[in-house]
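Thread: quick sanity check before group meeting

JM: Hey all, I'm pulling together slides for Thursday and realized we never actually wrote out the predicted structure for the chain we discussed last week. Dropping the sequence here so it's in one place. If anyone has concerns about the input, flag it before I start.
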Amino acid sequence: MTNSLSEGGASAIPIECDVTIKDQVASMISGMVAHFGRIDLVGYCASVIAAKKVADLTEEDGDSIMTTNAKGTFLFERTRQISKCQLLHQP
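JM (edit): ok, ran it. Output follows.
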């Protein structure tokens, strides 16, 4: 994905983190801001799917899916918004 964006004239860097861990998400956002100065657009590509029928899913499967897909998205967006506000209020 980063190669395609770069070929189109955009700047992009791949960053790997566990989106279910708040500190890793904060570190990722900090790394993006340190590299680019601000965040204009993010391709958030973290998700979990289960190749099973819903009736065959365990509670642990459901927890994994919801933690990555819902909590991960929440942590990312919350941290991004906090970072954006901090950047706007820098002297």
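AS: nice. The chain has a mean pLDDT of 83. The chain has one domain: 16-88.
JM: adding both to the slides.
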